[in-house]
Design a protein that fits this description.
The protein is an alpha+beta fold. It has helices at residues 12-22, 39-44, 56-65, 77-80, 83-89, 103-106, 108-117, 135-142, 169-181, 247-268, 300-306, 312-320, 396-408, 423-436; strands at residues 3-8, 28-34, 47-50, 70-73, 93-95, 126-129, 146-150, 159-161, 186-190, 195-203, 208-210, 215-216, 219-221, 225-228, 233-236, 274-283, 286-293, 335-343, 355-356, 367-369, 372-375, 378-381, 387-393, 414-415. It has 14 helices and 24 strands. The strands form six sheets. Strands 12, 15, 18, 20, 23 and 24 form a six-stranded antiparallel sheet that branches. A five-stranded parallel sheet has the order 3-2-1-4-5, sandwiched between helices. Strands 6-9-7-8 form a four-stranded antiparallel sheet, sandwiched between helices. Bound molecules: adenosine monophosphate (AMP) and glycine.
Length: 438
Amino acid sequence: MSINVLVIGSGAREHAICKSVKKSLIKNKIFCFASNYNPGIANICNNIFVGDLNDKKSILKYALDKNIKIAIVGPENPLEIGISDLLINEKILVVGPKKNLAQLETSKIFTRELLKNYNINGCPEYKAFNKLNGVKKYLERLGNDYVVKYDGLAGGKGVKVSGDHLKSHKEAIKYCEKITKQNGKFIIEEKLHGEEFSLMSFTDGKNLKHMPVVQDHKRAFEGDKGPNTGGMGSYSCEDHLLPFLSKTNVDEAKSINNNIINALKNKFNDNYMGILYGGFILTDKGVKVIEYNARFGDPEVMNVLQILKSDFLEICLAICEQKLDNVEVEFKNQATVCKYAVPIGYPDNPIKGEKIDISKLKNQQNLFFGSLDEINGELIEAGSRTLAYVGVGKSLIEAEKISEESISSVKGPLFHRKDIGTNDLILNKINKVRLLKK
Ligand code: AMP
Ligand code: GLY
């Protein structure tokens, strides 16, 4: 018997999800509810439907029409509007938490309060506000090291860091004012210094199976400079640690992820079924929590799924059937380097509509299509992160070489970060962490 699988979303993350479902030994047909026609996904799927990811009724209708057994939610927006609640009501299995539980990503205040109220390690000093009263005083208390975060989803644009986006308390207060004028809430918290990393876990709400830790690179340009982006590339190591992270640090992050799931279970008496993404930072005071996401990270998903030894669809079914403790979740001891090619001008003024050519690329198994259209048989840049390539090897050096050679062979008005996964950049990170400890 074959099962029908729905993948919601159509970026490189969802292309990676589709490829992993396709590899499963469980017979399946893949259907995709997409925000744009991704030619990579279209190639794998039985059907791709382009619609509005914020229109949950239309997603539900598609799922019912296609007799879907299990849905895998890629991006956060459908989670915020409660797509999981709706599909679960119709007895469709869903990898992706219900609306209440997805607040872990959709509300920064929710997450900080959860950490605090359940005494979970890693919470920075913070205060939540819905008006300007007390803001000035709290900023004065934090001095020059503060971060202002809009409470809700803002497509990565809601977080303003001192010294980076905010040059003075005056600018910070102006940003807070902008939020309150729109009746929004926000958090002010201490600015943490260190190296960031991501730990994603599969969870059925009771059991967690952790993935290898990955480091993303948010800045657009080499040397971690320039504006923030959705993520320009990421790497993971063959020992499933990172060059600047010890096993103790990773165990600490795992324990925080475990405690988060226990806290959610206690608070809502419900199971968080899906992917838990912990965004951490290693500081001189240990591992701290930057944020939580309720889905796979992009690009991090490409690093981990490329070395997953176990059957991805079997894991997804176990997540929804609360049997995650019964399935094996194993990853190969290989290093991975993922590099994104993005349009010239990205992220502020990306060009669009230009042709790209992937014909020189030798191994397309490890290629993932993102913001790309297919028009008259040609691949056309659609304005955001265009495509990603994951090099896999015995060591970071080997994986980086493959990734660099491959992404460089894509022709068109694109750029990528040559430094991701290279020795120089890694040594910089190790040194930065050494200096923190002094
Ligand atoms: P978020 O949307 O919460 O992931 O924040 C986006 C980025 O802002 C993170 O990846 C960090 O680089 C930065 N950031 C968020 N919170 C802090 C913090 N407390 N200290 C320093 N940087 C932060
Ligand atoms: N790579 C960061 C994210 O997916 O949010």
